[in-house]
Design a protein that fits this description.
The chain is α+β, with helices and mostly antiparallel strands. The protein has 4 helices and 4 strands. The protein has a two-stranded parallel sheet. Strands 3-4 form a two-stranded antiparallel sheet.
Length: about 110
């Protein structure tokens, strides 16, 4: 392990090559991430301190797992991750943003 860090890359259920159904920003997804942190923190190659890193969607998931307080979670590295769904995703400056809806309809 260069510099004492191990990296674990996790696909949410239904994302990438992970089986299942993607349930965006759900309690289940937060619990899954919690379980991944705990698994990583207990492996023989781990020092027990786990950090989560990500941008955008991956950053926003960190806001959901942090309140679950996984014992091995030592750090969050959040950038460009909205923390307020209404102001930062749905209504930028009060103006409707249909970015998420457009992605779902296939446009």
């Amino acid at each position: 392990m260069p510099d004492g860090y191990a990296i674990v890359r996790v696909d949410s259920r239904g994302a990438g090559r992970s089986p299942g159904h993607l349930d965006v920003w759900s309690p289940r997804e937060a619990k899954d991430l919690h379980d991944c942190v705990e698994w990583s923190g207990t492996q023989s190659w781990s020092n027990g301190k786990v950090g989560i890193n990500g941008i955008s969607y991956y950053a926003m998931n960190q806001w959901h797992v942090a309140p679950l307080r996984p014992p091995h979670l030592a750090a969050l590295c959040i950038w460009e991750g909205s923390s307020d769904y209404y102001r930062e995703l749905a209504r930028h400056g009060g103006i409707l943003c249909d970015f998420l809806r457009a992605g779902r309809s296939g446009r």
